[in-house]
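We were asked to recover a plausible sequence for a given structure. The inputs and outputs are reproduced exactly as logged, with field labels preserved.

PROBLEM: sequence recovery
POSITIONS: 441
GIVEN STRUCTURE:
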């Protein structure tokens, strides 16, 4: 293990912290770990993997074994990108994937990531068979049968239970590296929600929302659905002879932090208008490659820099089904009225609640919004917090950078159960983050 001191931040570029970075290289390094938090590729948006000392895991990226039935055993620092590059050409893919492939296995478990298929397939935790966790004292094997409480607490536990040393994951068998995609434009919020309801059987679904639309166009958007193409689906196309081709895209890089005046409500309004009006250039006869379907933002390297040097926050919440329409409409109206422009507004349907104590999804709808940090934003988000709480919802810890301790402890998470697990396994003496201190975890 080697170290360096640096000012670090995560994907939202807020907050920034001076940290002693310890780079984890092998299991022997656990003996050198004191009070700290594990950190992968820095794609959580807020301060959940920031602290005065961080254990940098991205160099601990090895495949340990792979079985013919698709069970992958790997170290916690292996990235989803590395898994896709190695296994998709062999007919295997991730059963659940977030909106970026630049996430480590340890980060995916700690955040219990979800994707466009939660309503049909659940969260990442459903496909993790077991893992080895360093809790500060020893390396513990965890599964649904062994140390079950620690196993469940780790999903969504934001690294506070310890460091994922290795994990066994069930991959998804695929015949091709293509998605059959469909898009529907909805002229307003009610039409968009009706499209969601009629598309529940689709494996993947996600909607982009124009959050600055007003009046009769409030909540207008584009619903994108899809499912994996079979080899037979490709018959008669140029893709048929190489159905599992690995598609790589050249990245466009944002070289500097954008000046503050570039990203404003007017520019976001223009982007939203053009996006809503454009035909899909990434669709070829209904077939879509993995990258533009699952990871459209990965095409732009360091896209977070468009928000300028002050950074941004991603505000993601989930509202239970029974109150989702009313609460979502109220929130969209507030955003439109106040003019806090969200460059990205993504709506997804969730399936049943996961088992983890701090796992985010519940049956309902989740909306993710990106807000440039400007004066008055945090006060405005506190207003939205109260709407979410009143509707029985909660915020996603992997995206959070500013939620108050009071709001968190009023949320419908099993906080007491989680803290009991930390106490039982003595994890709290070894792992803390800026977020855990802010939220009283």
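RECOVERED SEQUENCE:
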């Amino acid at each position: 293990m080697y170290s360096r001191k640096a000012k670090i931040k995560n994907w939202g570029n807020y907050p920034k912290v001076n940290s002693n970075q310890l780079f984890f290289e092998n299991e022997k390094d656990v003996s050198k770990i004191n009070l700290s938090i594990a950190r992968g590729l820095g794609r959580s948006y807020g301060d959940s993997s920031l602290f005065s000392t961080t254990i940098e895991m991205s160099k601990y990226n090895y495949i340990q074994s792979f079985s013919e039935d698709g069970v992958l055993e790997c170290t916690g620092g292996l990235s989803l990108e590395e898994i896709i590059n190695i296994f998709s050409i062999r007919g295997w893919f991730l059963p659940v994937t977030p909106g970026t492939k630049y996430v480590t296995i340890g980060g995916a478990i700690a955040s219990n990531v979800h994707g466009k298929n939660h309503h049909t397939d659940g969260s990442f935790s459903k496909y993790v068979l077991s893992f080895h966790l360093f809790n500060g004292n020893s390396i513990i094997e965890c599964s649904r049968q062994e140390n079950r409480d620690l196993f469940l607490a780790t999903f969504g536990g934001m690294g506070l239970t310890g460091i994922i040393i290795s994990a066994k994951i069930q991959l998804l068998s695929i015949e091709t590296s293509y998605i059959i995609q469909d898009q529907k434009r909805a002229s307003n919020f009610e039409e968009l929600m009706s499209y969601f309801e009629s598309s529940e059987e689709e494996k993947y679904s996600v909607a982009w929302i124009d959050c600055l639309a007003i009046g009769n166009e409030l909540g207008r958007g584009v619903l994108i659905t899809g499912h994996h193409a079979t080899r037979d689906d490709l018959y008669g196309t140029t893709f048929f002879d190489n159905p599992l081709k690995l598609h790589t895209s050249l990245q466009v890089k944002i070289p500097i932090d954008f000046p503050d005046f570039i990203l404003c409500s007017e520019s976001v309004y223009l982007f939203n208008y053009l996006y809503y009006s454009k035909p899909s250039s990434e669709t070829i006869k209904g077939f879509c490659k993995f990258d533009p379907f699952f990871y459209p933002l990965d095409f732009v390297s360091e896209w977070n820099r468009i928000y300028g040097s002050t950074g941004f926050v991603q505000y993601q919440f989930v509202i239970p089904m029974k109150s989702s329409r009313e609460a979502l409409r109220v929130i969209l109206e507030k955003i439109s009225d106040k003019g806090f422009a969200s460059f990205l507004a993504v709506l997804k349907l969730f399936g049943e609640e996961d088992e983890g104590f701090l796992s985010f999804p519940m049956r309902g709808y989740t909306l993710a919004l990106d807000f440039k940090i400007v004066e008055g934003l945090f006060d405005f988000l506190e207003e939205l917090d109260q709407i979410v709480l009143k509707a029985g919802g909660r915020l996603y810890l992997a995206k959070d950078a500013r939620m108050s301790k009071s709001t968190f402890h009023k949320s419908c998470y099993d906080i007491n159960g989680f803290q009991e697990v930390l106490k039982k396994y003595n994890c709290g003496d070894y792992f803390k983050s800026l977020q855990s201190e802010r939220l009283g975890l």
